[in-house]
Amino acid sequence: MRSLFKGNVVEKLAKVRAGLRHAFAVQPETEPLAIEDVQLLERIAETVVKRGMAAPATMFLESMGPMNFLGSQALHFITPIIDCVCSTKEVEQVARLLERRDTVTRLIAIIEATSAPKGATAQ
Question: Model-level pTM?
Answer without folding.
Answer: 0.67
